Amino acid sequence: MKQVNIYLLRHPLTREVRYVGETTQTLKKRFSAHITRAKTSGKKQQSSCWIKSLLDQGLLPVIELIEICDESVWEEREDYWISYYPNLTNHNRGGRNPGGFPLSNSHKKAIKDSLKGRIRPDDVKLKISNSHKG
Predict the structure, then answer these.
(1) For 10-36, how does the pLDDT look when each residue is reduced to its tens digit (9 = 90+)?
(2) What is the DSSP letter of 41?
(3) What is the largest CA-CA distance in the chain?
(4) Rounded to two decimals, what is the model's pTM?
(5) CA torsion sign, 42 to 46 to 48 to 51?
(6) How far is CA 89 from the centre of its chain?
(7) 29-47 burial by CB neighbour count: b if 16+ within 10 A, else e?
(8) What are the pLDDT digits (tens) for 69-89?
(9) Is the separation of the CB atoms in 55 and 39 below 8 Å?
């Protein structure tokens, strides 16, 4: 069975744990991906914003391995560690919902209203249609 690394990211000065994650990569590669996302991503994930704030101060988070487990139990183990630490930047327990937080009905309506009347090129319409068909 494949091994999964459960890791955390700490503030380099206060040592506060701010993120718990899992990877099958080396910690060095996963750490590099976090730094790259914080520097380049247009998405405003809380963990990326926190890392970017450290980078702006000339600091880097500290990555630490906290557990190695089989792939059959990694979700349960990651959930355990996420619930163990307070004040994390994780959007949700376990990281399995890439959409982040559920949207309120008023937020959904605001998004819908902002997209009404938008004219899209035919190739974009085709891509959207195909993505909905699977």
Answers:
(1) 999 999 999 999 999 999 999 999 999
(2) -
(3) 52
(4) 0.68
(5) positive
(6) 9
(7) ebbeebbeebeeeeeebeb
(8) 999 999 999 999 999 998 898
(9) yes
